[in-house]
TrEMBL record:
InterPro entries: HAD-like_sf, HAD-SF_hydro_IA, HAD_sf, PGP-like_dom2, S-2-haloacid_dehalogenase
Keywords linked to the UniProt accession: Hydrolase
SUPFAM superfamilies on file: HAD-like
The protein, known as: HAD-superfamily hydrolase, subfamily IA, variant 1
GO molecular function, one term: hydrolase activity
A Pfam family hit: Hydrolase
Organism, as annotated: Mesotoga infera
Length: 217
């Protein structure tokens, strides 16, 4: 019997559409580069610095973003500094809107122990959750846990804080590599939220969080 649900945050409960758009728009104003070129390079550097970062000695996400920002500033001769760009980006993360179907958590919150775990620094996570009024019983960021998904440590810590066993919970996330593989490695049943319908053969899979009311596990 399922007693608890663990949710990823960005891409699952909160939209991550054009996640780096606002900071790249600011950079475009501070230099002469094209916005599209800035966004493409930002994403490339993100993949470079965040690839397998869960395997390294823990550093908060800001550590990697500082390295990324430094490269962006040098490559595009931007007038801003690392700290101001990172603060601006973090502020924009906190303003990201929840998906409309995330409102189902208000109902699920009354029936299950709800936890949120996310690969993110705590400051903008708190802001995003507060701005969107997302209910939860347990919140665990990678910065709090000093661990990143798909490592099992952050999942184990969440279970401990929830006071539940692995068989008592399901985990809902939008990434197969990070979320589903992470949950599987921790012995937790994973449910993929696939709004874009990109993985029709994956199971268990939902296309809306509202389906959690009726999903057969």
């Amino acid at each position: 019997m399922i007693k608890g649900m663990i949710f990823d945050l960005f891409g699952t409960l909160v939209s991550n559409h054009r996640l780096f758009g606002p900071v790249c728009e600011k950079m475009a104003k501070d230099g002469s580069a094209d916005l599209k070129e800035l966004e493409n390079e930002f994403v490339r550097l993100y993949r470079k610095y965040f690839k397998d970062y869960h395997k390294a000695a823990f550093q908060p996400e800001k550590f990697y973003y500082y390295l990324l920002m430094d490269e962006m500033i040098k490559k595009f001769n931007l007038s801003g500094d690392i700290e101001s760009y990172c603060n601006y980006m973090y502020s924009s993360f906190g303003k990201l809107p929840a998906y409309p179907d995330a409102k189902i958590l208000k109902k699920l919150f009354k029936e299950y122990t709800i936890a949120i775990i996310t690969n993110a620094d705590t400051s903008f996570v708190n802001e995003a959750i507060r701005n969107n009024r997302i209910p939860y019983h347990v919140l665990l960021t990678s910065e709090m846990a000093r661990s990143y998904k798909p490592s099992c440590e952050i999942f184990n810590r969440a279970l401990h804080l929830m006071g539940l066993e692995r068989d008592d919970v399901i985990f809902v996330g939008d990434s197969i590599r990070v979320d589903m593989m992470g949950a599987a490695g921790a012995g937790i049943k994973g449910v993929l939220i696939d709004r874009s319908r990109s993985y029709p053969d994956y199971a268990p899979r939902i296309t809306s969080l509202e389906e959690l009311q009726h999903i057969d596990l």
